Records
---
Amino acid sequence: MPIHEIRCAGSSERESWDGYVSRQPEASLFHLFGWQEVIHGTYGHKTYYLMAVRREAQAAVRENSSLLAENAVGILPLVHLKHVIFGNCLVSLPFLDGGGILAGSKEVEESLLCEAINLGRKTGASRIELRQERPLASCDEVSVFCSETSQEPMQVATRSDKVRMLLDLPDSSEMLMKSFKSKLRSQITKPLKEGLTSRTGGVELLEDFYKVFLVNMRDLGSPVHSADLMRHVLSEFAERSRIFVIYKSQEPVASALVIGFGKVLRNPWASSLRKYASLSPNMLLYLRMLEFGCDNGYRVFDFGRSTRGEGTYKFKEQWGATPAPLYWHYISLDGKPRDPESSGTERFEKAALYWRKLPLIVTKIIGPSIRKHISL
């Protein structure tokens, strides 16, 4: 019998959940409980926030809930996405680069994985997606320690072609500029010579942020997220998040949202208008984010997810960022093997061609109702 039990944490246990996360060296921003509020509050998806707690402490925890955090030994946040076209799956976490299992031992890791599989079968999910910043050894052995002869055999695949692009930050923005090569410095000064300006703030800049984001997503052929997703982020992580907007006169031409956790400042969403690419607004946008990181005590800037060799990868690399692999595990519960490299927007290339031709107002209205079901 394991020395721990798995429970489903609710909103009342948010403080205990985040207390556990704050003490784990491998924890990331995406393990914080606030993402449950963000995703459910925006799109209404059902969530299951699994927490492993020492069995011996269960009675004490029931008597005094403040003991929950110190007796937690692992967590796994899961979101249930269910749609007739886009499929039925449990994801940790959709729309983001990470999440996944955070556990103090392999035994706890296995228990959380088994509980996720049991939950997947109860909800009729065809697969589970775990987005990890380190590979889970348990996934290679899942059919051994969590098998049921009456069920379809489980197929496990791992996608590792995506990377985080990370830049170590100096102690100040002045030192940051000195660290850049002369070619990069000249690229940074171009938008300033062109008269572009910047603003940094919170929800008051959301409208300007979204104007750029909406156009950029349409031009990429991708349904756009609801503005409410970013609104909930700014509410749940008010002290951790900032919006940056670059302007040509009064028109927003590039924008980004950053969120901090520990010593890492992450940039999950950034966009710019293609028609102003010759003015290099992206260079000023990223400079302002990096300066903010340096001057606010962050030691690493996470540029976000990229594919090696692609344009966004090269753009981030020129700032000095280096790749750190992401490990996305796909556990098939219906016995059908999946190619993880083909999972995602590749399946909708033809739809993307048509999406780019739609009027902006149409993509704004119907985009979020589609985007909510796409886990990427």
---
Amino acid sequence: MTERNYFVHESAYVDDPVEIGAGTKVWHFSHVQSGARLGERCILGQNVNVANDVVIGNNCKIQNNVSVYTGVELEDDVFCGPSCVFTNVINPRSQINRHSQYLRTLVRRGATLGANCTIVCGATVGRYAFIGAGAVVRGDVPDYALMLGVPAQRKAWMSRHGHRLEKRDAENNLVCPESGWRYAEAEPGKLRCLDWPEDKALEPAK
């Protein structure tokens, strides 16, 4: 028998077949359903459900009481706060079976979903976007956007390091107060980082 290189708490259920990457931890009362694929170094907190055929990237943190439903995909480095909500049917009815009508939801690299927020199915949440606690997202979210309210609206930009971008340099670029990295509004409603490739993860913390 091959020794597994990930951890599953004795109270958790992991169906067969699933793929779980090295260093991933599945904690108390969680359930990973068949066909799911979890990357490396993920943490699934207490009472997390990962439904059939869900794809989760590397280094994702899913906090307590989150259900990641079929049709949802998380790229690398996504943070899901406690009790955040995904859906996969836009117009559910108990009497009508809509299993064939699941809409895809994509959460891109590095995004943060705050506690108790709701991501209505069919949306794409952009890279390093930050969804505030309790917000309700009803459509696509730009990269680096700070989304607040019901329905959620962009209130500011956030850096990759999780800081609201307010300070500007002499060239009118937004500057992260922690890293010093610069961000430019290439066109209205779109931000890009000038000091790190868009598709490259941050270096691990020292």
---
Amino acid sequence: MVYKIVLLINLFGALAVNLMIPGQVSVDVHAPKEIEAGKEATIEVDLNKSDVRSFARFQHKLPGGLEPEVVNNGNAEFRFENQTVKFIWLRLPQQEEISISYKVNVNKRLKGRFQLDGSFDYIDNNERKSVNAGSQTISIRPSASVDQEMLVDVSEFKPLAKSPAEKERLSRVQCIRQVPYQLEDDKAYKVNLLVNKGNKEKFAKIQESVPEGYQAVKEDAKGAIFTFKNQTAKFLWMNLPSEKMFVVSYKLIPESNPGGNPDIDGDFSYIENEATREIDIIERQVDLSNTQEDHLMSILNAEETPVITAEGGLMAEENELREENGSSSADLNRHNGKVKVEIAEEAKRLLEQNTRLTNKLEPQSGVYYRVQVAAGHRPINVERYFDQYNINKEVRTELHNGWRKYSVGSFPVYKEARDYRVHIWNTTEIDDAFVAAYNNGDRITVQEALMITNHKWYR
């Protein structure tokens, strides 16, 4: 009897302890033990984030020769930088369990083994925390189609040196359109476009003239803003994707039954040395559904796509206008100037729109406090994003240490800011809000602000 009582006490004690311990953040990685060189493999990650709702990041370090492509981003931003795969959340979704996945394309020359290491990093109660994603050994089985002398261990991999002619070709900006093809069991046509950006990083645009009777619908924009208006489909980038080569796509939905492949005319424009450059998009019978680097490189190497600068294109256009319209030189100069600044004006409009959307925080004089409610790297529509939290003060954005930080209020006394932070905790799902201090618009620590103003600190 005594034994049973002791056992029951132990059981209830254990149960009480379990109830008091909150859910634990955990990471479960599913990766193959072996991958064949020249093929691709999928890596899946299951995250149990418990009740964490703040900024978070999952990352995996990959060796050279492995190129990732996102499959399921779990509402995160996907990046690949310095051989590191990153899934970044400005704010984690509400559900406790999140699944993400990506696939890796393995260079066909590889062999050997490597360690797949990673971590899940997040902010909890204003503290940075990290969960180790474990370490898994993955073997690369050599490709039977590659000469043994060409194989290289994954730990020593470096891409083969390209010939000067190949280097020159791949450094040129190119854009190739796969001949549009009709999708199975669908009247729609798929349009794939391969972009080789060379060393260009900033603003660029694809513009395609679509025939009457079709509507263009975005498929994969690779981070671009996609629009369709007046039978013109546009991909517009403020910053080009990190990949040297990438494929974007859209679908053409017929409004009737026009018959035959749609005839599309397009160009790719970009900024170089503060001037507009423009090249024609070349249409070819190629397969752009295969996005592996070697395949895309073989397409670029096979294509003759001379770069046409804005000046060169305008000279040809000028001759046409002279012959057809007999326009004066002044008219042509005005026309040329309009064409040259078109992209720059569009970039300016986007920048203005971006500033409006971020509700820029203007500096104030003296010491004051605000309550920070979120932070991230990429701009968001502030009003739309924070509407869901019913915050009764305007959310403003500032750039600080490489982050876009979102805060509310302006409080001359620390206690007022502290009280509003508690209000945010109690009335919204934002449980990681905190007080930030400023002096004449510059961020300082709360401790510095209290010392300057002789205000008291309150828990």
